[in-house]
Every structure is written in C-alpha cells, then in structure tokens.
Amino acid sequence: MLQVNNVEAVYSKIILALKGMSLHVPEGKIVALLGSNGAGKSTTLKAISGLLSGDGGQITDGTIEFQGKKINGITPDVLVKNGIFLSIEGRRVFKDLTVEENLIAGAYTRKDRSNIKGDIEKIYEYFPKLRALAPRKAGFLSGGEQQMLAIGRGIMAKPKLLLLDEPSLGIAPLLVKEIFQNIKKINQEEGTSILVVEQNANVALSIADYGYIMESGRVVMQGDPVTLLSDKDISEHYLGIG
Ligand code: ATP
C-alpha cells in the first residue's frame, strides 16, 4: 500500500533530517514508527503527506509510492483526495466549529455524501464521549477529547491510509489505552491501513502488526512487536522500556 524507499529530506536546504529512510505499510495493517525525539518520525509523516515543503523542507532523494504510484511532489489536498489522511498535533480540529461540524467537515472530500449521518453515528459508537459533546465548540474540549475528535475526523474522510502523529501526547494513561483500542477497532472494522508515530512504544506495539525504530533519520531496527519487545537490548536502548 505505502512504500517509502531510501528517502532523504532536508530543512532549509542544509539540515539533513532523513538519511535513507525506508518503510512499508501493507494493506490493512497497523505499522508503528518509534524512536527518540528528533529521530525524524514527524518528518517522515510530513514527507508522505506532502506537508514537508510547507515547513521549509524538501525531499532530495528516494521515492514514496502509494498503491504502486509515485507520490513525492504531490500536494496534500490531492493526496487527501486519493485517500491519505494525516492527523497531526496542533492542526487537528477546527476550534470554532462544534464537534459535530468538525466531523461533517472531515467528510468534505468524499463523493458518497449520503451516508455521512450513518458514519457520524459510527464515530459516536467508537467514542461515546463525543456524542455528549456534539454541540460543544471543539476549542473547549480537553486534549484527550480533541484527540478523539481528530481521529474521528480522519475516519470521516474514509481514508485508505491514516497517518497518526503521537495520539498519546498529553493524554492521561487510561484514555491512551482507550484511544489505541479504538484505533485497532477502526483498522479491523473499516480495513483502514494505519501508520502511527509514537513515543509510547508499549502502547503502539500493543496494537501494531509491525514496528520500525528510527534514529538519526533512518531505520535502525524493525520487526514484529513480540520480537521487538522481547529483546531486552532493544526495549531498554531504543524504546525506553526498562
Ligand atoms: P519528536 O518525537 O521530538 O517530534 P521526531 O522523531 O518527530 O521527534 P522530527 O520532528 O522529524 O523528529 O525532526 C527531525 C530533525 O529535523 C530534528 O533534528 C529537528 O530538529 C529537525 N527539524 C524538524 N522540523 C524542522 C523545521 N521545520 N526546520 C528545521 N529543522 C527541523
């Protein structure tokens, strides 16, 4: 479904953030992208979703393929229409719109407008809290509630590939578990392929089919979650799990 091949990316023409980054997200799978601060995880997501140039960056080598077609250089709006949706910290919800208006806005690229009501209902089943908050302006929601809404908006777009940037950031531990269980449910019920970037390796690997660990702009380890978590060196060294 998604193939990142040896991508090199720079910011301001000089800061080398990706140095031969490669990964693969197979159709219908959840892949976790892990690693310490500054490893290049967010840059990888930006490169995939076409948002790098908006941040003063560019891809200088390598290719990104989505469903067999090269997508580097394609603008974010075209990528969204083709089924790639990025949910990113800070750009997640429209604060002046209500929760329900945010969900409706999430479906703006869809051609099948008839089933939007039914899909909103589905989001409320995944995240019952959002139903109670439906008329509330999104700007007044807590961080965790906004995170649920951001994921809900992503689902409304019916993407083939959902990119999630640190869904656990700033969220209470109990809620993190709930959000990740819902991400897994969405993957299973909708068949959405998911690439999730996380600092919280434990929770990400608990739902992932495969994991990559990045350091200094490239992948240094990869494997299925059981293998990654059972290796003491990897757990302590790269995942911060002691
Ligand atoms: P974190 O977990 O802290 O978000 P990350 O793995 O997502 O880290 P990136 O945000 O991709 O890391 O950053 C990779 C490198 O690129 C870092 O050295 C960072 O300082 C640099 N970088 C990121 N964004 C920019 C930017 N807009 N301009 C210049 N350098 C940047």
TrEMBL record:
Which is one Pfam family of this protein?
A: ABC_tran
Keyword hit for Nuclease: no
Q: GO molecular-function annotation terms?
A: ATP binding
Superkingdom classification of source: Bacteria
Q: Which residues form the ABC transporter domain?
A: 2-241
Q: What CDD domains does the database record attribute to this sequence? A: ABC_TM1139_LivF_branched
Q: Does the keyword Cell cycle apply?
A: no
Keyword annotations of the record: Amino-acid transport, ATP-binding, Nucleotide-binding, Transport
Q: Which family does it belong to?
A: Belongs to the ABC transporter superfamily.
Protein name, entry field: Branched-chain amino acid ABC transporter ATP-binding protein
